Amino acid sequence: MTDQERANREVHDTDIFAGDLPDFLNRWVSAQRWFPNGRVPPALSLVGQWTLASPDPDVQLRTLLVRDESSRGTAVYQVPISERVAPAPHLEPALIGVAGEAAGAARFVYDGTHDTVWVTALLRFIVERGLVPEQFQASSATIARGQPIHAAHPSSSLASRVISCPVRSSRVLTGEQSNTSIICDLGGGDRSVPPVICKVFRAIHHGQNPDVVVQSVLAQAGSIYIPEPLGAVAGEWNDPGQPDGRASGHLVFVQEFIPDVADAWRTALLAAAAGEDFSEPARRLGHATAGVHADLAAAMPTLEATPRVMVTMVTAMLDRFRQAAIEVPSLLAVRPEVERIFARALTVPWQRLQRIHGDFHLGQVLDVPGRGWILLDFEGEPLRAVSERDQPDAPLRDVAGMLRSFDYVSGTVTHSHPHLDPERVAAWALACRRAFLQGYALGSKPRGSRQSMSDGERESGDHAGDNAGDNALLTALELDKAIYETVYETRNRPDWLPLPLAAVRRITSTYARSRNDHD
Ligand SMILES: Nc1ncnc2c1ncn2[C@@H]1O[C@H](COP(=O)(O)OP(=O)(O)O)[C@@H](O)[C@H]1O
Ligand SMILES: O=P(O)(O)O[C@H]1O[C@H](CO)[C@@H](O[C@H]2O[C@H](CO)[C@@H](O)[C@H](O)[C@H]2O)[C@H](O)[C@H]1O
């Protein structure tokens, strides 16, 4: 019998989750940041579960898949559990509840993401291609598969190097909302094995996770612009909402964790406040963005931007604007200009559509000393339907996202440092914008004629970025992103709403002025 088979059998024999789920689980879930219906106590039902082989006979490891029957939503949530026969004082803050006390066989149930034993077993499951087959009861017809991701050179890939490495320590990152991320230090201080970050998806969905798919493709293309992926867990579970009653999707993603580097949102804020020029990193970032786009266009399906495709995309932008105006009524004041700017995008040629980052901003990129820019989190915009996120899109959407982010830096710094001259801060952002566009244009040249940044930096003038800067599609995409941001801020950070609203007004009034000049 394999370790995995033994784990499955033991969990089945002593299943404290076999009947109704215990109340303490409902209470605990309702208090978690990733659970949306915070105030209403959920009525969780078990959809399924997958087990991990535990190295310790007194610890059982499983992950519950639960659905909240009290809400109309159909979301399924993952709850990794570490179940112990004795209390573990070091896990006290992660205690979910105690079961079976009355029967004299107490089980201490902990949040598995906080237990290094669960994390160790998870990594092993992935690198050893673990498989949890359908088992123990019909209602838990859940399948989980460990899938190592191999980069261009499988023998040196992270999954191969991690295979014999112990987990020295693990800790859960705080501050996130939708996933739980665990950082693990591996090996005996061996520097060839970096720490890894395990992203446990809390709300799981039918369909492949864009972050896993895109980063796997980039790793296989040998991209230097992403953390090295280690692997994923893919699953299948019962879902009455699907035509065949089954859903499948990613449950966990693990990749190299790059320690001690602040994301570019923080470094850019500091630079802008100090009046330090940021155009050199911005130019390199544009170049890196173009490199990622080139790899994605070569490795994943692309779509010609026919008039029909263009109209569909512009119609979607108009729909988003109309929806946004319901939540942010002040947008209605600029409706005619918004409609014209979107319509004007149809008058220029577009590049082929392709896979892109999808939610590109300074908080998603790290400038790593000695390595350069690294892009994170290819999951796409959180407010966008998951089914839309894996469709080919305009690569300029990522460019627009980053340009909006430079503007956010300027707006934030102006607001938080009232003594600074707003025009100087705006000039800082404009320099970033120009440099980013130059780097992007330089990196987008066809292979062969594409220059390295050092060549490019010496040679490139403003012209490289100006084409993109004038592009009617880029303006439309910046406006589309600013409109998205008005909704995002209204829902999440209402104090920030003036920032994207000001951008919407600026983009529309600049357009209106330029029309008047031409008339
Ligand atoms: N591979 C990585 N290396 C270094 N930092 C990372 C890595 N992946 C994510 N981060 C950082 O960890 C934090 C959490 O990331 P993530 O799990 O993607 O959650 P979220 O979707 O909430 O941003 C972010 O601040 C991000 O910058
Ligand atoms: O949570 P995600 O990182 O996936 O992205 C969402 O949240 C972002 C805010 O953290 C939001 O980005 C907006 O604010 C940023 C500054 O905090 C700014 O750099 C971006 O330009 C601005 O869009 C992002 O839009 C949203 O999807």
What does this structure look like?
Residues 455-465 have a biased composition (Basic and acidic residues). Its EC number is 2.7.1.175. It comes from Cryobacterium psychrophilum. One of its GO terms (molecular function) is kinase activity. It catalyses: D-maltose + ATP = alpha-maltose 1-phosphate + ADP + H(+). The structure is a single chain. The chain is an alpha+beta fold. It folds into 2 domains: 3-256, no CATH class; 264-513, Alpha-Beta Complex (Aminoglycoside 3'-phosphotransferase, Chain: A, domain 2), CATH 3.90.1200. It has helices spanning 3-13, 23-30, 116-127, 158-162, 210-220, 264-274, 279-299, 307-327, 335-344, 386-389, 396-416, 422-443, 453-459, 463-470, 472-492, 498-518; strands at residues 44-52, 59-68, 76-84, 95-99, 107-111, 131-132, 143-148, 167-172, 179-186, 196-201, 203-204, 229-238, 246-256, 365-368, 372-375. The protein is 41% helix and 19% strand. α6 packs across α11 (396-416), α7 (279-299) runs parallel beside α12 and α12 packs across α14. A 7-stranded antiparallel sheet has the order 6-7-12-13-10-9-8. Strands 1, 2, 3, 4, 5 and 11 form a 6-stranded antiparallel sheet that branches. A two-stranded antiparallel sheet has the order 14-15. β12 and β13 form a beta hairpin. The protein starts with a helix and ends with a helix. The longest helix has 22 residues, at 422-443. The protein binds adenosine-5'-diphosphate (ADP) and the ligand O=P(O)(O)O[C@H]1O[C@H](CO)[C@@H](O[C@H]2O[C@H](CO)[C@@H](O)[C@H](O)[C@H]2O)[C@H](O)[C@H]1O. The ligand O=P(O)(O)O[C@H]1O[C@H](CO)[C@@H](O[C@H]2O[C@H](CO)[C@@H](O)[C@H](O)[C@H]2O)[C@H](O)[C@H]1O is lined by residues 265, 359, 361-363, 381-382, 404-405, 408, 485, 488.
